[in-house]
């Protein structure tokens, strides 16, 4: 199930343009805040203004939130505030890599399929439909076992399930545009297939891609968190919200709430911000979609 499906409620609520614009602005503000955190947290650690998120020796375990440790400490002795902030960078690295990989592959194959048609189109459609029928998280789990842990490996494992979405959108757009007069004129002048695809069709075929990119980024954060919770995705030494939630869960029943609350809150806030931004972009790019 995609983030877009999960946010159908927001689609029903955002009836007035003013409210939609405000929520889109809120989503953009939250996203920019997390981007700033991702860039600044390593610098603050290097300057000694933020505890080392990988240092589990200096601090006592399970200290509650205080002026010394704003989000408390974990059962391993990590500073939860530092870990929560540092995990933002890993999330952006994996999510951006995953969405870029799926975008490049999906857009390229979609344009080729829509323009060439015939057996190539049918073969690619069958392959993409097969991938699309598989649950995204399950597919990412299986691929994580195959490719192993790491930033790029996790991005590859997550990206596969998003490729059919880009493929479908771009393939349909390309198929509807290839018979337009400007394309036929380019063919008559002897333009090569790559030139037609890149110069004449690409800009028109990717109009909805920014919306997909943003919504898939939000969904990818949840998938990365799921992989981390299962002990997959990134190496244990890299701060990651899903992994920290997995390690903190046993202590929740004993009243140690802060080790799960703050990583979970950060993950939820980042997903919500990207989702609202994607919904706002969808209305901006396709203003008639809400009227249907």
Can you give a write-up of this model?
By secondary structure, the protein is an all-alpha fold. The chain has a single domain, classed as MetI-like (MetI-like fold), CATH 1.10.3720.10. It has helices at 3-6, 8-13, 17-46, 80-116, 118-132, 136-147, 151-159, 163-177, 181-188, 193-205, 209-229, 241-252, 258-285. The radius of gyration is 22 Å and the shape is elongated. It starts with a helix and ends in a 7-residue tail after the last helix. 41% of the residues are buried. The model is unreliable at 1-7 (pLDDT under 50).
What's the CATH C level?
Mainly Alpha
Most strands sheet: none
CATH superfamily caption: MetI-like
Series of secondary-structure elements, N-terminal to C-terminal: HHHHHHHHHHHHH
First-residue to last-residue Cα separation: 22 Å
Rounded mean pLDDT score: 85
Helix content: over 70%
- Which ranges are low-confidence, i.e. pLDDT below 50, for 5 or more consecutive residues? 1-7
List how many beta strands DSSP finds: 0
Class derived from helix and strand content: mainly alpha
SS element count, helices: 13
Whole-number count of domains: 1
Net shape: elongated
User: What share of the residues does DSSP label as strand, in percent?
Assistant: under 5%
CATH topology: MetI-like fold
How much is the radius of gyration in Å? 22 Å
> What is the CATH architecture assignment?
Orthogonal Bundle
């Amino acid at each position: 199930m995609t983030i877009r499906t999960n946010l159908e409620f927001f689609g029903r609520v955002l009836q007035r343009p003013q409210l939609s614009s405000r929520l889109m602005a809120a989503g953009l503000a939250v996203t920019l805040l997390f981007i700033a955190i991702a860039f600044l947290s390593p610098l603050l650690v290097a300057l000694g203004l933020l505890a080392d998120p990988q240092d589990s020796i200096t601090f006592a375990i399970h200290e509650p939130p205080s002026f010394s440790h704003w989000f408390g400490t974990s059962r391993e002795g990590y500073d939860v505030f530092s870990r929560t902030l540092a995990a933002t960078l890993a999330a952006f690295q994996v999510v951006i890599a995953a969405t870029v990989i799926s975008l490049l592959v999906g857009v390229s194959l979609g344009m080729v399929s829509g323009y060439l048609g015939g057996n190539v189109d049918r073969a690619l459609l069958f392959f993409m439909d097969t991938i699309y029928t598989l649950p995204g998280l399950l597919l990412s789990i299986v691929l994580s076992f195959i490719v192993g842990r790491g930033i790029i490996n996790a991005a590859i494992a997550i990206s596969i399930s998003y490729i059919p979405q880009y493929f479908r959108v771009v393939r349909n757009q390309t198929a509807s545009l290839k018979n337009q007069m400007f394309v036929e004129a380019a063919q008559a002048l002897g333009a090569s297939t790559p030139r037609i695809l890149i110069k004449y069709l690409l800009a028109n075929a990717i109009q909805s891609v920014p919306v997909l990119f943003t919504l898939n980024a939000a969904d990818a954060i949840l998938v990365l968190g799921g992989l981390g919770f299962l002990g997959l995705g990134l190496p244990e030494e890299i701060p990651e919200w899903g992994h920290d939630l997995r390690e903190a869960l046993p202590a929740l029943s004993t009243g140690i709430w802060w080790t799960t609350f703050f990583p979970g809150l950060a993950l939820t806030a980042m997903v919500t911000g990207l989702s609202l931004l994607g919904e706002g972009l969808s209305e901006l790019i396709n203003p008639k979609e809400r009227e249907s």
